[in-house]
Amino acid sequence: MSSRRSRSRPSSGSSRITDDQILDLVSKLQQLLPEIGNRRSDKVSAAKVLQDTCNCIRSLHREVDDLSERLSELLATTDTAQAAIIRNLLTQ
Amino acid sequence: MTSIYQINSATRIRFARRFLISLSRMRRASTLGPPSDEEIRTRTRRIRIVSYSSMAFAVGSSRAWSRALVLKIRNRARFRGILRNKCLASKKKRVIKRHKVSREMSKTDMLRRLVPGGAGMGICGLLEETAHYMTCLATQVKVMQSIADHYSK
């Protein structure tokens, strides 16, 4: 956890950011991550959570790229009703 | 994993609606017959931008990352033709530099680069925005996946 304290805090304003606030936010991020070890909140360091978050966001960006390509190829060849898709999505 | 998808169901519907409308507009505008590789590449790029902008608009101006993303997309569209040659030249130099520095960059800086608008935030704001951004990204991926699955049936 010491790596967090040595990191320079940007001069955002008058309010001092407490370590508890940061801990709380980092644990919130940790819960979002799809990992086996995300229950054991005490044993995972903040650096690992940040690293996993970065990896997660990068992989999500890649998935968006792949899906865009897939949709672009499908777009030319199909003719479907949009009402059916929206209905499908709404009932999920 | 389930916590990612439980939030923002209204946002998900707004995103899906905007995205589908943009997709149908693209389909109507496309040429008849099999598209060339160049057309597919251009359309892929457009679909990618449309997906991010649809999500940013669906989230609205309540989040710093969505505001930053909307601004970025608008500015890019506006200056794309004029500054294209200039940007390409300077981008090449910048990419080489980035590889050298990336090992020393802190995790916070990496996160700031990934989250739109992250550069100007304090650490607390950055972590909050990251959490919301990640859930919205996951929603975006899930909706795009179900659309693609529906189209490929």
TrEMBL record, chain A:
<feature type="domain" description="BHLH">
    <location>
        <begin position="6"/>
        <end position="60"/>
    </location>
</feature>
<keyword id="KW-0341">Growth regulation</keyword>
<dbReference type="InterPro" id="IPR036638">
    <property type="entry name" value="HLH_DNA-bd_sf"/>
</dbReference>
<keyword id="KW-0805">Transcription regulation</keyword>
<dbReference type="InterPro" id="IPR011598">
    <property type="entry name" value="bHLH_dom"/>
</dbReference>
<keyword id="KW-0539">Nucleus</keyword>
<keyword id="KW-0804">Transcription</keyword>
<protein>
    <recommendedName>
        <fullName>BHLH domain-containing protein</fullName>
    </recommendedName>
</protein>
<dbReference type="Pfam" id="PF23174">
    <property type="entry name" value="bHLH_ILI"/>
</dbReference>
<dbReference type="InterPro" id="IPR044293">
    <property type="entry name" value="PRE"/>
</dbReference>
TrEMBL record, chain B:
<keyword id="KW-0804">Transcription</keyword>
<dbReference type="InterPro" id="IPR059002">
    <property type="entry name" value="IBH1_N"/>
</dbReference>
<protein>
    <recommendedName>
        <fullName>IBH1-like N-terminal domain-containing protein</fullName>
    </recommendedName>
</protein>
<dbReference type="InterPro" id="IPR044660">
    <property type="entry name" value="IBH1-like"/>
</dbReference>
<keyword id="KW-0805">Transcription regulation</keyword>
<feature type="domain" description="IBH1-like N-terminal">
    <location>
        <begin position="14"/>
        <end position="76"/>
    </location>
</feature>
<dbReference type="Pfam" id="PF26576">
    <property type="entry name" value="IBH1_N"/>
</dbReference>
